[in-house]
Write a structure and sequence with these properties.
Elements lengths: L2 H4 L13 E6 L8 H10 L6 E4 L12 H8 L5 E6 L5 H13 L4 E5 L17 H11 L3 E6 L10 H14 L3 E4 L5 H13 L6 E5 L5 H10 L6 H9 L4 H18 L4 E5 L4 H11 L1
Parallel strand pairs: 1-2, 1-8, 2-3, 3-4, 4-5, 5-6, 6-7, 7-8
Length: 285
């Protein structure tokens, strides 16, 4: 099922307020995919509308073969592989598009990706995500998702400028926006309002990052423009042995507030941990 069918309006509402749950997974560092399959079998009971799959930090496909994608698809998930500008030539993109289509996959997530210091951005075939979206759109009928940043991309001068870049991706052919993690729901509500004012009317799906450790949240906020409620940080620092419990409770309240305010499309960055995500979903569904 394509993105436009899954999310039929801005927040994915189709005449009711049934939450639309999706997950992001990534290839295990040790290359053993069996544990990931078990995690997915657990998450399957929540009937996700799709599962997105990263290919590792560099954006290459070597750590997540198409055979593994096929095996995951055999679990009857609606899959959305990630494609990035980094380490991807036009010829490689075309080859991977064909492989994805041959597997019957209908959606992909097109991202610029973080550019490592050893790569000269000027030598890439695609410098920005809108270029990648436009190229994919010209070569295929795949439905394309893109990233959105409720507080603006860390490299953008302002949220207003960042939404201008989002508009370029949408004009190039994007069908849905999946947001970066955020911890202040007001940031998302404001973002959706500004996105609409910019003439962007495709679905905006809220990216949810359950916190397991204080180190995790410190790393994420150093890499991205993400504000964290002071009280939340204080709790994590005060009770270092209970960070996952505190993070889980925070995410439950966050998701409940989103649902109460009509944002019913939630995309969980699982970090391949079904236990915490399951607890959250058991409390909000």
């Amino acid at each position: 099922m394509e993105l436009s069918e899954i999310y039929q309006d801005r927040n994915g509402v189709i005449g009711d307020f049934t939450p639309k749950i999706s997950f992001e997974i990534f290839p295990p560092q040790n290359g053993d995919i069996s544990d990931l399959f078990e995690e997915l079998r657990i998450l399957k009971r929540y009937n996700p509308v799709l599962v997105s799959m990263t290919y590792g930090a560099s954006g290459g496909l070597s750590r997540f073969s198409f055979e593994n994608i096929k095996n995951i698809r055999d679990l009857e998930f609606n899959l959305m592989p990630h494609f990035t500008c980094v380490s991807m030539l036009k010829s490689e993109i075309e080859k991977h598009i064909t492989s994805v289509e041959n597997l019957g996959i209908e959606n992909i997530l097109a991202l610029r990706g973080d550019i490592p210091e050893y790569i000269n951005a000027e030598e890439l075939d695609f410098s920005h995500a809108n270029e990648l979206v436009e190229f994919i759109q010209s070569k295929t009928t795949l439905s394309i998702g893109v990233a959105g940043y409720p507080e603006g991309h860390i490299e953008s001068k302002s949220l207003k400028d960042d939404i201008k870049f989002l508009k370029k991706k949408v004009d190039a052919g994007a069908s849905a926006v999946f947001t970066q993690l955020f911890f202040d729901n007001e940031k998302l509500f404001n973002y959706i309002e500004n996105v609409q004012k910019a003439g962007i009317n495709i679905p905006v799906v809220a990216g949810i990052m359950p916190v397991r450790t204080l180190k995790q949240i410190q790393k994420m906020t150093s890499m991205a423009r993400v504000s964290v409620p002071k009280k939340f940080i204080q709790q994590l620092e005060k009770y270092p042995d209970d960070t996952m419990k505190i993070g889980t409770e925070f995410t439950i309240r966050q998701c409940e507030n989103l649902l109460e305010n009509g944002v019913n499309s939630l995309h969980f960055f699982t970090l391949n941990h079904s236990d915490q995500v399951s607890e959250i979903l058991d409390n909000i569904l």
